[in-house]
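Re: that backbone. Tokens:
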């Protein structure tokens, strides 16, 4: 009798265990169904890492270097594929533009051009602006701008020449030219110039556009066509706007020289034009 009672107790215990187990199983099934339907999701990692798209790249890039002053909304505009030219709006803040101008002002000298035969600098009627070079990594603010250029172009800071600051007064201009070299001397350091980032440090009331006279496509389709000077209408034109940066490539993706990168600075008609140029080489440019 006692034995029977014992086994009955055991059977009861067993059925309780079975019940608990089956309930756990049911719960698992329900949970799996909810997960499968996407109604419920498991937290995979705590930090909310940014989604893997270009907006997050841009956010990361702009958050890395805070820079001087506050920049307006930034966006890029494809201007042309022949030449490959892009306009980055509000690349620099007003404070950064003013900082560069004030840093350069005491050292401005009449600009020269490179003689393609000798590789030497020479005076020229082709280029009537004045300018000076800043040192690469000269100070914190310049390092910050140079890092931003590297992030934007995907070309390392080491491949860049020091920033050149340029000033054009009324009637001053730079006739159409290429940024790449056709001589051996100028490509010794860093190899060929691959790309140029031209930053506008001031607005220009009238004239002073950057033009690409050999650009393919309908150059009169730009929204600012009616605001262009006569010179600006002779090609694909970019109107200087303080803080904007124009990126264009002197080389095609297959590393051949792109003759459609021919460009010039239109004469300033009224106002003053300040700009800063960063030339980027295919290899490290030794200082
Ligand atoms: C170029 O673009 C302008 C403005 O959109 C248009 O009026 C003109 O017809 C275009 N020209 C050609 C040749 O497509």
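Recovered sequence:
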């Amino acid at each position: 009798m006692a034995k029977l009672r014992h086994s009955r107790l055991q059977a009861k215990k067993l059925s309780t265990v079975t019940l608990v187990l089956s309930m756990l199983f049911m719960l698992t099934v329900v949970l799996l169904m909810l997960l499968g339907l996407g109604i419920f999701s498991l937290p995979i990692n705590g930090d909310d890492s940014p989604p893997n798209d270009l907006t997050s790249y841009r956010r990361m890039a702009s958050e890395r270097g805070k820079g001087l002053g506050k920049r307006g909304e930034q966006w890029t505009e494809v201007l042309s594929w022949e030449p490959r030219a892009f306009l980055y709006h509000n690349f620099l803040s007003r404070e950064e533009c003013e900082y560069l101008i004030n840093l350069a002002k005491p050292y401005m000298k009449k600009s020269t051009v490179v003689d393609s035969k000798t590789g030497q600098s020479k005076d020229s009627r082709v280029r009537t602006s004045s300018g000076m070079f800043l040192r690469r990594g000269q100070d914190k603010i310049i390092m910050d701008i140079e890092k931003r250029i590297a992030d934007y172009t995907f070309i390392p800071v080491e491949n860049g020449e020091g920033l050149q600051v340029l000033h054009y007064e009324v009637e001053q201009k730079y006739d159409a030219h290429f940024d790449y070299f056709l001589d051996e001397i100028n490509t010794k350091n860093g190899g060929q110039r691959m790309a140029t980032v031209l930053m506008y440090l001031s607005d220009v009331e009238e004239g002073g556009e950057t033009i690409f006279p050999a650009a393919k496509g309908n150059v009169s389709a730009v929204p600012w066509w009616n605001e262009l000077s006569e010179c600006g209408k002779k090609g694909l034109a970019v109107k200087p706007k303080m803080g904007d940066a124009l990126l264009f490539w002197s080389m095609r993706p297959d590393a051949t020289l792109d003759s459609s990168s021919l460009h010039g600075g239109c004469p300033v008609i009224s106002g003053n034009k300040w700009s800063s140029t960063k030339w980027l080489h295919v290899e490290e440019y030794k200082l």
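The chain has a mean pLDDT of 88. The pocket of 2-acetamido-2-deoxy-beta-D-glucopyranose is lined by residues 218, 220-221 (CB under 6 Å).
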